[in-house]
Specification:
The protein has 383 residues and is an alpha/beta fold. The protein has a domain of 197 residues: SGNH hydrolase (Rossmann fold), CATH 3.40.50. The protein is built from 15 helices and 7 strands. Strand 1 and strand 2 form a beta hairpin. Helix 5 packs across helix 15, helix 8 packs across helix 9 and helix 11 runs parallel beside helix 13. It comes from Engelhardtia mirabilis.
Length: 383
């Protein structure tokens, strides 16, 4: 008997919807595994081709690389540009570590205990306590002074190395959850006048937050595969070589202005210009008061030789003095506290570890100057 021909039914041989979905799922998983595997491989071998535009420099190439590595004292953060890395050892104070909330000193409960008065100090490396132990910092000593006056006080050391007032405002917005009663602002000593790396701090912070930050920028900053694609296009195929050269030349031109930024005729762009510093003070004081706290300004001292050699720094001091009068804010003049008195004080240069950073004795003097002002300000709210 001859074999019967096989009858093919188009209905039975057509892929069912479940088979099609299964095939699509397998293909999607395979593609995802391939992409993730390639991304992982590029990270393992250390490939990098980030955008060379200096606008992306957060704190300088070397420090940026250290922060991205997950080592060192700081980490890159959105809004503030950088912050102390929780758990990081503080190199100038062996045995001390940044607490889990990202600031120096004891942990604090977010909810303020009943009857406690909290003082938040914000500033740069001097407020962080560069090269001194935490117990020697003016923030810690201020707490002891206030307790000695009968106040149940807690202080929070919100200062960060390298900070300007622009970053300080962003940090206040984060730390305001601790409900401080008093906020001490100690900015304007030196960081504001330093050269901007690509952009001044205000537009750089906005850029980092995503204002004017394209999706391509975000992808390139975070994906090694995207960086590889840019490498193939730009470096191997010459897609944007002229544009890259122009950016490099602009960066070199900006770098030529580094140094001498304390001079009155320095031609470069500063991180925060004096007039912007004054505007920041207005904004900062307004937000502190809106949060129900009392603002106190602290004009940080500098060694006399620095002020002579870099007179531009005094423009920031004058902005502080003008803001104190304009906004009716208490001002503690650290420069005046450090003035030499042969009977009561040593030569003020002995109160510094370098041009800017107070010694332990210098911190003690600052705390002593702050305490009565803080007490008076608090008393005014209870009358």
């Amino acid at each position: 008997m001859a074999p019967q021909p096989r009858i093919i039914s188009p209905m039975t041989d057509r892929p069912t919807p479940s088979k099609a979905r299964r095939a699509l799922l397998v293909s999607s998983i395979s593609l995802a595994v391939m992409v993730l595997g390639s991304e992982l491989l590029l990270r393992v071998v250390g490939f990098s081709n980030e955008e060379p535009d200096p606008v992306y420099a957060v704190w300088g190439n070397e420090l940026d690389a250290q922060m991205k590595s997950g080592r060192g004292l700081h980490q890159i953060t959105i809004g503030t540009l950088w912050e102390p890395r929780p758990g990081a050892e503080i190199p100038m104070a062996p045995g001390e570590f940044v607490n889990s909330a990202g600031f120096r000193g004891p942990e604090r409960e977010v909810a303020k205990p009943d009857g406690v008065v909290r003082v938040l100090t914000l500033g740069d490396s001097s407020s962080f306590g560069m090269k001194v132990a935490y117990d020697e910092c003016y923030t810690a000593q201020l707490e002891q002074n206030l307790r000695g006056a009968g106040l149940d006080a807690e202080t929070i050391a919100g200062g960060v190395i390298g900070y300007t007032i622009a970053q300080g405002l962003e940090r206040f917005r984060k730390l305001s959850v601790y409900s401080p009663d008093v906020v001490v602002l100690a900015f304007g000593a030196v960081n504001e006048l330093y050269p901007a790396q690509g952009l001044p701090d205000r537009p750089k912070i906005a850029h980092q937050k995503g204002v004017g930050f394209s999706k391509t920028d975000v992808l390139r900053a975070n994906s090694k595969l995207v960086q590889l694609a840019h490498y193939v296009r730009d470096d191997l195929l010459g897609g944007r070589e002229a544009d890259r050269i122009a950016k490099y030349e602009a960066w070199v031109k900006a770098e030529q202005h580094v140094g001498g930024q304390g001079a009155l005729d320095w031609p470069g762009t500063r991180r925060v210009a004096p007039e912007d510093f004054g505007a920041y003070l207005d904004e900062f004081v307004g937000e502190i008061r809106a949060a129900g706290a009392i603002p106190v300004l602290l004009s940080m001292p500098r060694q006399r030789v620095y002020e002579v050699e870099s007179p531009f720094c005094l423009k920031y001091t004058k902005q502080l003095e003008a803001a104190a009068e304009r906004l009716d804010v208490p001002l503690v003049d650290g420069r005046d506290l450090f003035k030499w008195d042969e009977v009561e004080r040593p030569d003020p240069d002995q109160l510094f570890l370098d041009h800017f950073h107070p010694s332990a004795e210098g911190h003690q003097i600052l705390a002593g100057g702050l305490a009565p002002v803080v007490l008076e300000a608090l008393a005014g709210t209870r009358d």
